[in-house]
Amino acid sequence: MTKDRSLKEKQNNSSLKLFVVLSKAYRSLMEQVEDDIQQRGLNLTDFAVMELLYHKGPHPLKAIGEKILLTSGSITYVVNKLENRRYITRIPNQNDRRVTFAEITEKGEKLLEHIFPGHWSRIEEITSGLDEVEKQIAIDLLRKLGTANQVK
Q1: Domains defined along the chain, listed by start
Q2: How confident is the model at residue 7 (pLDDT cuts 50, 70, 90)?
């Protein structure tokens, strides 16, 4: 009986509940966002790379992979695909031949400028279950949670 009681206590634990609710909410939001991006002709990874380059400028391929959590092999595949579609271009580093940068092209910029307004509207719809005050509270709490246990 103590095992059953211990399991029930764990199931009632607010930390576990928070984790489960966050996981389910994240999955639900991401499925909707991914569906929206796919309807606009890109997959989520392609969009993430292009969006990073659009907003932050040229980046080394390794840094792109680190920022959007892709392995070097995966980032190479994505960059090749986007380069073949002429959405981005590679730029060799003159000072270090081991480093290659990626930069969004004019065609890529035009695509994102076409996609962004509808995509942002869809994100507004997806998050419309919260009002503006609740969104700010959620942002603050999730930021606090995300940074509380970072390695210092």
Answers
A1: 17-148 (1.10.10.10)
A2: low
- 3-state SS class at 70: coil
Please check the confidence at residue 27 and state whether its pLDDT lies above 90.
Answer: yes
Locate tokens 């995966």: which residue? 74
Q: Residue 70 has what pLDDT?
A: 84
| Residue 79 phi, psi dihedral angles, 5° rounding | -65, -40
Sequence-separated (6 or more) residues with CB below 8 Å from residue 41:
111, 115
**Structure tokens belonging to residue 127:** 């998050």
The residue among 93, 101, 85, 100 whose CA lies nearest residue 53 is: 101
Q: Mean of the per-residue pLDDT values for the chain?
A: 90
Structure-block tokens of residue 135:
């969104």
Residue 4: alpha-carbon gap to chain centroid: 39
Using alpha carbons, list the distances in angstroms from residue 144 to 19, 55, 87: 14, 25, 36
What is residue 85's predicted lDDT score, i.e. its pLDDT? 96
The amino acid at residue 94 is Q
